[in-house]
Hints:
The structure holds two protein chains of two kinds.
Chain A: E1 24-37, H1 45-53, E2 60-73, E3 77-82, H2 88-95, E4 103-109, E5 112-113, H3 115-118, H4 128-138, H5 143-157, H6 172-185, E6 190-194, H7 202-217, E7 221-225, H8 229-235, E8 238-243, E9 246-252, H9 253-266
Parallel strand pairs in A: 3-7, 3-8, 5-6, 6-7
Antiparallel strand pairs in A: 1-2, 1-4, 8-9
Helix pairs in contact in A: 4-5, 5-6, 6-7
Chain B: E1 35-38, H1 48-57, H2 59-73, H3 83-103, H4 109-133, H5 140-145, H6 152-179, H7 190-214, H8 218-231, H9 239-244, H10 248-253, H11 256-268, H12 275-303
Amino acid sequence: MSSVSELPSSSTRQPREYQIDDGYSIIVRDVSVTYRTSVEGKPTLQSTIRRVGRRQRIVREVEALKNVDFRVRRGMVYGVVGANGAGKSTLMRTVTGILPPTEGTVEVKGRVSTLLALGVGFNKELTGRENVQLGGLAAGLSREEIEDKYEEIVDFAELHDFMDMPMRTYSSGMYGRLAFSVAVSMEPDILVIDEALSVGDARFKKKSFERMQDLCSEDRTILLVTHAMRTVKKLCDRAMWLHKGEIVMKDKAQEVVKHYTRFLQVAEDDELTAEEL
Amino acid sequence: MQTVKSTDPALPRSAEHRSRNGGAVPDDDVFRGDHHVYEPFKVGLPPLRPYVREVWNRRQFALQLSKTKLRAKHYDTALGQLWMVLTPLLMACVYFLLVMVIRGGSRGIDFFAHLCAALFAFHLFSQSVQQASTSIVRGGKLVLNTAFPRVLLPLSSVVHAFRRFLPTVLIYAVIHTVVGVVLGWEILLTIPLLGLILLMAAGVSCLAAALQVYFRDLSNFLPHLLRIWLYTTPILYTAEQASDRGLSVVMWLNPMAPIIRAWSSVIDEAKLPPAEVFAAGIAWAVGLFLVGILFFMSRERELVVRL
């Protein structure tokens, strides 16, 4: 009955109706996500009463994703690139089921390690150890599982002396290192990593890149959001380029990087400086 | 480019369903299971049984969260954890003075005991609600980045308040003994009454947490609202005094009033409360619990969009 929207880059060899059992881990069908924000910024009771009194509804809609449609095969490393505000994080949150899509459906098969390092660091008043524990428990791990992984996480993050200090005392690099360590030490079928690779000093970057390579060579589906083009080229099989919520292209990772890099060089936008690359 | 809507109308919303090839048996975990379908948000309840099971599976999270928050709360104060008992005790003293000044007369020391017992119980309720109201909004990264039943956050606030309540039980036991208030088997009724308070606290907490996402002013209103709630509950006066002044309707319309009334009756006088007071307490507690928790669950998936 329904037709999958034909995007120029999606080849037409495959059947029109994709089933999750055909070897896909993730099927995103024409998903749009619209945030509704009131103009005042934060919705407050006062403004609501005033608005209701005037019988008006001031709602500004922000379309974070527009008709995004893609599939990821099992075991594939799929890259997502795009400028700030392109909708990458929104896409990740939709795939992990945190944000409901406004339109379309997302189908996922396998245990998903939720993106962005399990929400580690959600409370800066708590210590690193407590944050790791709570993040793990919220994600549904048992105390024993967390205990098993804890040493490994701390070792990798090299934060032995800091784990019992409140996270507000952490530097941003330390923060990122911990988040990355937590994300990669979980053992999910589908791993969603959001810009976690560009943390820490050069040595840690190298270390985390190697860790990513290991993960990618295993039979896992990985959705990787990053600004580092070198990472996309080296690690990803396929990639998509998002711009303002829409897919500009999806193709082999090499091709996407090539076009995206060319676009960046042409664009005069200050946000897209070389430091992000 | 027309949109593709749900391809299979039989797919349950955001729930796992049996994988069609009969391969791996998906566990019933909505958040971690094998196969998920996420569809647009509609106001409605998630499948209840898997949801409840999932909440139960992650009870450790709520317990741990309340524990660590407790530890972090008075991290930099000199008196540290002592504040857990000092705050309610000081509050009782302040209200005792207040009542003495206003009434002019000298109330007996057993009134102080009554005040403590009732205030500590009400404090448990108001603390959970106040904590819970910001639990989702302040949940930050955890709420945005991890898929789990969000109802755990307000529930954890209730656990938190309960943990803070426990030491005050000891304090009260000392006061009770020193003052020499009567003691009878009726005091055992405080246990089911405590259960009712917690049930109501959980319901109102969920309600407050969800509403706070829509109206960010709520957390500013809440302390005042809770204070008025406290004043309309027979704590600074007795239910009989309220009835004498023709305020008995308040004693029924205020959901906390019957419970506190029964609470005071069994603790202060070792007397069974009238059956209708008990019944009203149960009705309010169960009712508010269901309203609060179901409201929260029906909105849960939308909350993230509005953060």
